[in-house]
Amino acid sequence: MRATHLCFIISALLLSLLRVRASTLELAKGFAATPDSSISSFQSFLVDPNGNFSFGFLRIQQSQLALAVLHAASSEPIWVANTSTTQWADSTTLIFNGSLILSNSKTGTHWSTRSEGDRLVLRNNSNLQIQKFEEGDTGPSIPWQSFDSPSNTLIENQNFTANMSLVNGAFSMKLGGNFIGLYTNFINQNQIYWKHTAMEAKASIIQGEGPIYARISPNGFLGTYQNEKAPVDVLPFNTFQRPTSGISLIRLESDGNLKSYYWNGSAWILDFTAITEDCELPNFCGQFAVCTPGNGCECLNNKTEYHRPGDCARHESQQGSIKSCTGHSIIRKTGVELPYKELMEFEKMGSLSECESDCERNCSCRGAVYNNGSGYCYRLEYEIGTLVGVGDEEKIGYFKVVGGEGRWEEGTGVCCWCGVGCGGWSCRGWDWCVWGVEGVEEEDEKREDGDGG
Ligand SMILES: *[C@@H]1O[C@H](CO)[C@@H](O)[C@H](O)[C@H]1NC(C)=O
Ligand SMILES: *[C@@H]1O[C@H](CO)[C@@H](O)[C@H](O)[C@H]1NC(C)=O
Ligand SMILES: *[C@@H]1O[C@H](CO)[C@@H](O)[C@H](O)[C@H]1NC(C)=O
Ligand SMILES: *[C@@H]1O[C@H](CO)[C@@H](O)[C@H](O)[C@H]1NC(C)=O
Ligand SMILES: *[C@@H]1O[C@H](CO)[C@@H](O)[C@H](O)[C@H]1NC(C)=O
Ligand SMILES: *[C@@H]1O[C@H](CO)[C@@H](O)[C@H](O)[C@H]1NC(C)=O
Ligand SMILES: *[C@@H]1O[C@H](CO)[C@@H](O)[C@H](O)[C@H]1NC(C)=O
Ligand SMILES: *[C@@H]1O[C@H](CO)[C@@H](O)[C@H](O)[C@H]1NC(C)=O
Ligand SMILES: *[C@@H]1O[C@H](CO)[C@@H](O)[C@H](O)[C@H]1NC(C)=O
Ligand SMILES: *[C@@H]1O[C@H](CO)[C@@H](O)[C@H](O)[C@H]1NC(C)=O
């Protein structure tokens, strides 16, 4: 009696598993789902034919919800829908009616593919596709696919084109005319901090022949192409020309680094690192900080103790006027340089004071770094991220900070209140100051989020 009972339960369980499994290879029009509060991490709706990848609701930090494609064995997100993360609430629904739509009955539509398709499938390369069938067609057309809107990850064989970007927080990766660039957004100002220019060894980039695109090859490199004939560049990974059995991906990390990994069957193995020295990252210690190789982080002002990124900026933005560009203080620091100075424009100037006063006069200049040896003056139009500490006392930084106390000399900026008798650029300066402080707070929040997860 007991055994029969158990047998019944087991077969019912198997049946339901099979049903789930069978129904998760594709989703048809009419599909609708809500978050299941009994699932603590990932609620799968769809798997790929090999069972390597899975698409569903990903729960982040108890209360937040994202729509993601995961690598099943490692639970690593490969793709995340570009929606501000949603609260994990019963009122959230995901529907497929030709478009995949994430909405909330209270707050409306959060995200939509705005497509007209017939079914949703997850391909064996992790590509989430909406397919449409028309009579007479040999295969389905693809009104939408996740490969066209990557998040922070590019997986093997996925094309990365000139109109795409990988994004992680304030960092992004984009293609230029003949290079791959990493950029950081320092409060609405993009600064390139890593650049890999195509070598054009096997093929040259020909003007007018279309934009370049990049793709990870199973042979252990990130190839850049203008057409399929030959790569215009090969960026080798450690496993270059030594094919691994597992899949490779490249990811823009939360610290702005670009890393490649391959799956060895049980772990993701690091295969390439764009920036090998932490201090060379654009914002490793947060804003208004100095990173000295082998010696860690410290704040630009000598008073704030550094514990974690954001500490130095918090002090700088606490006091003082944020509504005008007057009332700032100046911090000077010797033995510092910009981590990405090779990628920055500069102007040659005769002396440190010339470089400084040029910045002092100009409200949109937030700081300058001068090299007394070469005479190069690098101007910053944004609040400084992290500088690199160098032994060379000839490299001197000059930074305007909002806040600070007595010991620092008062700035004499010429900017004034928006609309009060200034040129057009000062209005920009005003906006900029407000943005600056908000940006710092946002950055802090992001860091906190990051630390928590
Ligand atoms: C995908 O699945 C196959 C077999 O099911 C396995 O050999 C392969 O390593 C998996 N790939 C990844 C990326 O997990
Ligand atoms: C995500 O969406 C925002 C706002 O619509 C857009 O500005 C941003 O570029 C998008 N990010 C990516 C990676 O497409
Ligand atoms: C899908 O649903 C959305 C929102 O309810 C609606 O705006 C859209 O027209 C629907 N699309 C189709 C093809 O029915
Ligand atoms: C993935 O799917 C394609 C066609 O959709 C097929 O040609 C290929 O062999 C599949 N790869 C694996 C590893 O299953
Ligand atoms: C990548 O682009 C090439 C050339 O346009 C194309 O042949 C290939 O099918 C694309 N791959 C994917 C996964 O879309
Ligand atoms: C992006 O560029 C590719 C070719 O590089 C093109 O096929 C595609 O339509 C473009 N997508 C958008 C949204 O512009
Ligand atoms: C994969 O890498 C991990 C971590 O380095 C290691 O412990 C494991 O043995 C490797 N697995 C295989 C199949 O090589
Ligand atoms: C910080 O201290 C060093 C010596 O310890 C000094 O040379 C430097 O001027 C100080 N910087 C500031 C901004 O007070
Ligand atoms: C201020 O600096 C910015 C950028 O360095 C420059 O574009 C602008 O022309 C300068 N304005 C004045 C008034 O010098
Ligand atoms: C800069 O260089 C000049 C001459 O090369 C020298 O006189 C001056 O002391 C140097 N200043 C600093 C701050 O190193």
Automatic annotation (TrEMBL):
Location of the Apple domain: 325-403
| A Pfam family assignment | PAN_1
Signal peptide start-end: 1-22
Give the top-rank taxon of the lineage listed in the UniProt record for this protein: Eukaryota
Per the record, the GO terms for biological process are: recognition of pollen
Keywords on this record? Disulfide bond, Signal
Matching entries from SMART domains are given as:
B_lectin
Which SUPFAM superfamilies does this chain map to?
alpha-D-mannose-specific plant lectins (SSF51110), Hairpin loop containing domain-like (SSF57414)
Please describe what this protein does: Involved in sporophytic self-incompatibility system (the inability of flowering plants to achieve self-fertilization).
Question: Could you identify this protein by its name?
Answer: Apple domain-containing protein
Please report the organism this UniProt entry assigns to the protein. Answer: Stephania cephalantha
